[in-house]
Amino acid sequence: MRLIALLMLPTLGFAAPVPNLKSDIELKLSAENQDVLNITIQNNGKEPLELPYRFSELENFVIELVGEKGKTYKIQRTREKDDKETPGTLTIPAGESKTLSLHTCHSLPELGDSQKVTFTARLKHNGKTVAAEPLTVKP
Questions:
Q1: Are the CB atoms for 101 and 58 separated by under 8 Å?
Q2: The pTM is what?
Q3: Would you list the domain boundaries of the chain?
Q4: Burial class (CB in 10 A: 0-12, 13-18, 19+), 68
Q5: Which residue positions in the chain have pLDDT lower than 50?
Q6: Under CATH, which number does the domain 28-137 receive?
Q7: What is the model's pLDDT at position 114?
Q8: Fewest CB within 10 angstroms: 56, 65, 123, 139, which?
């Protein structure tokens, strides 16, 4: 009886390989210094990526700064100084990317003295969160 059961099981050697699934959205961080963080959004999907916003193209992002002494600061909504709401949609065609820049110099004092800063960024879209690899920048 066991022999029949073993013959009915597929062998692992013939199992189909699991495909390497690539996310439709990729985030990459870059910076020449601590004052400006560049966030590149790559659309790997087959349809244009549309990110609606009310105040700023960076509204859907959570940016976190971590100093080397462990202090953290989050930038969650980058609303413009004026009271005008400027709704819009950031559209990235399929297979293309868009780079957004964020001035972080006003946030650095929250971390204390001049030091290495690690940036992380997460994009919230359609109930999912896409995170970028952390980026550490020296002063």
A1: no
A2: 0.76
A3: 28-137
A4: middle
A5: 1-21
A6: 2.60.40
A7: 65
A8: 139
> What Å distances lie between residue 71 and 25, 41, 55, 111, 116, CA to CA?
29, 27, 28, 6, 11
Give me the amino acid identity at 64: E
Query: For residue 13, which amino acid is it?
Result: G
Strands 117-125 and 88-92 come out as: unpaired
CA dihedral in degrees (64, 67, 70, 72; nearest 10)? -30
Which tokens belong to 55? Answer: 């105040």
- Burial profile 96-131: b = 16 or more Cβ within 10 angstroms, e = fewer: eebebebebeebbeebeeeeebebbbebebeeeebe
Instruction: List pLDDT tens digits, range 24-50.
Output: 899 999 998 889 999 999 999 999 999
CB atoms within 10 A of CB 27: 19
